[in-house]
Amino acid sequence: MIPGFDMRDAGLLLALQRGLPLDPRPFARLAQELGLTEAVVLERTASFMRDGLVRRFGAVFDARSLGYDSTLCAVDVPEADVEHVAAQLHPHPGITHCYQRSGAPALWFTMTAAAAEFARAIATAARLTAPYELLNLPTRRTFKIGVILDVRRSAGSGPAVATGTSRMTDRRASERVYSEQDRAVVRLLQEDLPLVAEPFAEAAGALQRAPGELLATLNEWQQQGILRRVALVPYHRELGFAVNGMCVWKVDPQRLEAAGRRIAAAPEVTHCYERALDPRFPFNLFAMLHAESLPVAEAARARLATAAGLSGGRMLLSIREFKKTSPRFFMEETLKTET
Q1: pLDDT digits (tens, 9 = 90+) for 18-62
Q2: What CA–CA distance (Å, rounded) separates 221 from 183?
Q3: Scanning 7, 61, 65, 158, which has its CA 20 to 30 A from the CA of 309?
Q4: Is 125 left (phi over 0), alpha (psi -120 to 50) or beta?
């Protein structure tokens, strides 16, 4: 358990990661579900943020539903050049995560951009990483997504990982047209929400909308998959999950869906995707797992492979984190980069 934490804190932290109720007084409703008071929930939530356990408290949106594309990229950079290339990539606003991982390719990053600008964003990344060749591995299917970490311990065990709802989708970028009013909602809620008894009322006031109208919009978006949740987004290392491993396998197409579903069902796995197979990195099933130590991660990977009937594959461990932020949507006027 995290120093100073008890089971009450651990349960509250888990509930806040899973999502705040879309209710006029969400903290009061959550408090009732947990057997706490609204004041305690608000105070402890503020303490989680003060203590640096979470990096954001706000809305988590589905990028494709908002008309954005995203991809995972890699560059095989020599050790001596890793920091320099990462520094070139860091200012790009579409790059939300950038890591050095064990093995080759060494440098990995995610890119998110409006669908109409996506090709241009990838071209910019290729220029920034030159003379090293850019590897683009877009998602074909999503089997699971959502970093929700459970810090509770059972006797003699390490922390368990509880993830968001497993889902399989191959949706393309949405063709839905969002009004300026809708865009304003996204722009506001992707920032940190105020830790007050009625955060949605305060947000509605900033948007010059009625609180009930805003909540109706958010509930509709959640039902449609546009809004995943309004939640705390944790720092995994600060919660005791020191090891982050990207596990990859090459799977025959006819077996891939079954294997993806099996891997996604594992509690250690927070993300599981089918990605485009490239001969330079010949793997098409990707899974992210979080663990408290390397032996625990290695044991989890072996167990996953056995359960899914997979052989071979690799686990690339995060060595250094150069950037980790959330995507920011409908901010194109500030997201333009040099051509």
Answers
A1: 999 999 999 999 999 999 999 999 999 999 999 999 888 999 999
A2: 13
A3: 158
A4: alpha
